[in-house]
Amino acid sequence: MTIKLIASDMDHTLLTEGGQLPPNFIPTIQQLHAKGVQFAAASGRPMYTLKQMFPELADTMVYVSDNGGAIGYQGETLFKSLLPLADYQRMVQFVNQTPDGIGVICGMDAAYVETQYRDYDATLRQFYANIEYVPDLTQVSVEANKFTIYFPGKDSQAQYEAVFAPEFEPAYSVTVAGVEWIDIMNQGIDKGHAMRFLADYFNITPAQMMAFGDTYNDKEMLQTVEHSYLMGNAADDMIQYATYRADTNENYGVLKEIQKLL
Questions:
Q1: Whole-angstrom Cα distance, residue 26 to residue 105?
Q2: pLDDT, tens only, 96-119
Q3: Long-range contacts of 125-129 (CB under 8 A, 24+ apart)
Q4: Of 11, 57, 84, 261, which has fewest CB within 10 angstroms of its CB?
Q5: How many C-beta atoms surround the C-beta of residue 94 within 10 A?
Q6: How far is CA 75 from CA 106, 137, 191, in A?
Q7: Would you give the DSSP letter of residue 160?
Q8: What's this model's pTM, rounded to 2 decimal places?
Q9: Structure confidence at residue 117 (pLDDT)
Q10: Per residue in 100-111, is it b (16+ CB within 10 Å) or e — as a string?
Q11: Contact 182, 156 (CB under 8 A)
Q12: Whole-angstrom distance, CA of residue 160 vs CA of residue 105
């Protein structure tokens, strides 16, 4: 098979549970590039966080950030889908009326969180390298491509089914991005859309693309590319969306499959 682009989710997929990259990952990706294969980090994380994670690959890798809400390559933003101000402000007001979730406005340069939630800084900062604490989220007016709800109770799937899907689908793209997260983007924005965009941009086909994921915000990406791998640590109900099974993130499943390809 001829692979031209490999995309990988970050959390619980490429990264270990401790948030570490696999050993020798950077030189492996450099080997891929030498063979003409693009590597894309496809994550719910924002672009500024992804760039900090891979400084050695800044000139070569593709950043699919905010579940496809923005795509960057070689210092340029190739694509962004901004939420209208009125839309994300309605989301802020809705979350403020629900007892369990903490709203995060995902701006292009920083995440905006209310000062009262500063106790969660250590957790939030794992994903959002730049955080602006503000007294009142309803007063924030910035370029934002995603609105996120953080659930300290780790019940995002139940919250999605009972509260957030009924309220915001199908007008928006709403996805569970892990046990603590629900992400809301503009309608039609997901990692699958990002793969189609990159196929056009690089003039390749889904048959030349490989992707790795573990949870619901990876579903469309896995369905879009021909060579789709579900992580060994993923929930069994995700099996229907992928063609192959990789080893777990703790056992460096993504790296193993890339090394097989090389």
A1: 31
A2: 999 899 999 999 999 999 999 999
A3: 126/19, 127/11, 127/44, 127/45, 127/46, 127/49, 128/45, 128/46, 128/49, 128/104, 129/46, 129/48, 129/49, 129/52
A4: 84
A5: 17
A6: 20, 30, 20
A7: I
A8: 0.94
A9: 97
A10: ebbbbbbbbebb
A11: yes
A12: 18
DSSP, collapsed to helix, strand or coil, labels residue 174 as: strand
The Cα–Cα gap between 108 and 110 comes to 6
What DSSP string runs through 110-155?
A: -EEEEGGGGGGHHHHHTT-SSEEEES-GGG----EEEEEEE-TTS-
CA distance 183 to 27: 32
pLDDT band at 138 (very low <50, low <70, confident <90, very high): very high
Query: How big is the chain, counted in residues?
Result: 262
DSSP three-state, residue 213 = strand
> At residue 55, what is the residue type?
P
Instruction: Retrieve residue 3's tokens.
Output: 């692979």
pLDDT score of 235 more than 90? no
Strand 62-65 relative to strand 70-73: parallel, antiparallel, unpaired? Answer: antiparallel
DSSP 250: T
Which pair of structure tokens corresponds to residue 58?
């800044």
How many Cα atoms sit within 13 Å of 125 on the Cβ side? 10
